[in-house]
Amino acid sequence: MALLGIQLANIEVLSTAHRVLAPLVEPAIMGILNVTPDSFSDGGQYVDPAEAVDHALKMIEEGATIIDVGGESTRPGAAPVSELEELNRVIPVIKRLRSTSSIPISIDTQKPMVMAAAAQAGADMINDVSALTAPGALQVAHERGLAICLMHMQGSPVHMQDEPRYEDVVREVLDFLKARVAACVDAGIPRERICVDPGFGFGKTVAHNLKLVNDLSSFCALGVAVLIGVSRKSTIAKTLGKQHLLTGSLVTALMAVERGASVLRVHDVAETSAALTMWAAIRGAAL
Questions:
Q1: For residue 73, what are the CA distances in angstroms to 2, 80, 260, 279?
Q2: How many CA atoms lie within 13 A of 128 on its CB side?
């Protein structure tokens, strides 16, 4: 069996098909590459472009099939950074990685100018925690022919965890993402280039997060790929304790896959790849 993840025939980097997210035959592993000094789990570890690319190549060897490059922390309480600072962080890394590997590269940003520059540098996908709501973001995604991930977030990173409230978290998140998918389709972006992320940890309590994972199959009804990012997040620490972050991340990721998630955004690529291989072996034995 090939490494679990998107096969190069299913998403295109160097031609337009490398930017298609559906159909995904196997769950894809999106390796997190934060080139920031202040991200919640790995801030400051990969600010040097050479070290960042080395880490990306290691994740690829371990089973990552997409690399997600981020230059602005969106952890709770994080302050925004300038467009110039974000560009200076991510563009050298994307250029180096593209010159070294044909792996699909995602740019984790909310800024249309960064999206455009990243595409020019070789990125294939936009991962936007604000779901392309910034003026000009939809236009960049459409004109550049990029795959996109639309995430739900209540509020902004600075205040999103102050007091998150919902009457029905699944319905409200689903309604938001349905509207954003429709906006993308209306802008000319094909559904096969779209995925959605319910935003685990982004303006949600522990109970909200657990409910979203448990009801993740509801999001498959949108007719696009579903991405989930639970890796090392505080809901796991609050549920199990910080010493069990990896265990909790793997269990939650596998339960998300069982409920329809097709992309897992993770820090621990080797462990996630092994867990998925075991999951697939057991699932295959039941057929």
A1: 33, 8, 27, 32
A2: 27
- The domains of the chain, with CATH numbers, are 25-285 (3.20.20.20)
- Residue written as tokens 């989930």? 228
CA distance 124 to 167: 36
What's this model's pTM, rounded to 2 decimal places?
Answer: 0.88
State the catalytic residues: 233, 265
User: Along the 287 residues of the chain, how does pLDDT read in single tens digits?
Assistant: 232 233 333 333 333 445 666 555 578 999 999 998 755 455 456 678 999 999 999 999 999 999 999 999 887 777 788 999 999 999 999 999 999 999 999 999 999 999 999 999 999 999 999 999 999 999 999 999 999 999 999 877 766 577 788 999 999 999 999 999 999 999 999 999 999 999 999 999 999 999 999 999 999 999 999 999 999 999 999 999 999 999 999 999 999 999 999 999 999 999 999 999 999 999 888 66
Q: Closest Cα to residue 277, out of 242, 253, 243?
A: 253
HSE value, Cβ hemisphere, 13 Å, CA-based, for 131? 26
Residue keyed to tokens 């319905």: 171
